[in-house]
Amino acid sequence: SFTHLEQYNFDFVENSEGKERGYCIWQEKDSLFYVRDAGPVKSSSYREIIGGLCGIAKDKGLTPLFPTVPDDDPLFLEATELDPEVLLKQSEMIYKIH
């Protein structure tokens, strides 16, 4: 069973007309809205999704946090244009298994 997944929520992100614009896997902890994964539908953009997620977090009185987003990810590239506060940079190491 996948009890560790019960702490996550999966929701569709909708615009003001109620049309699906993307999806989000998230978790609420303390005063933070942790976005584990998010993405747009074909006719939408990451910028629109980020705006929607920040709006949801604000409505809940939470601070949005996008942890572990690689700097070459489309979500990160769109977010940098919105001047976010970067808390840390992640370095990845690849180990060769012989």
Report on the biggest sheet. 4 strands, mixed
Going by CATH, what is the homologous superfamily? Gcn5-related N-acetyltransferase (GNAT)
Helix fraction by DSSP (H/I, runs of at least 4): 10-25%
Count of individual beta strands: 4
The strands making up the biggest β-sheet line up spatially as 1-2-3-4
Order of helices and strands: EEEHEH
Strand content: 25-35%
Q: Note the gap between the termini.
A: 33 Å
Mean pLDDT: 83
Counting H and I runs of at least 4 residues, what is the number of helices? Answer: 2
Multimeric state of these chains?
Answer: single chain
> Based on helices, strands and strand pairing, what is the structural class?
alpha+beta
Structurally, the number of domains stands at 1
Keywords: Transferase
Protein name: Acetyltransferase
GO molecular function: transferase activity
Describe what you observe in this structure.
By secondary structure, the chain is α+β, with helices and mostly antiparallel strands. The radius of gyration is 15 Å and the shape is globular. Strand 3, helix 1 (46-59) and strand 4 (63-65) form a beta-alpha-beta unit. The protein has one domain (3-80): Aminopeptidase (3-Layer(aba) Sandwich), CATH 3.40.630. It has helices at 46-59, 74-80; strands spanning 9-14, 20-29, 32-40, 63-65. It contains two helices and four strands. A four-stranded mixed sheet has the order 1-2-3-4. This is Acetyltransferase. One of its GO terms (molecular function) is transferase activity. Keywords: Transferase.
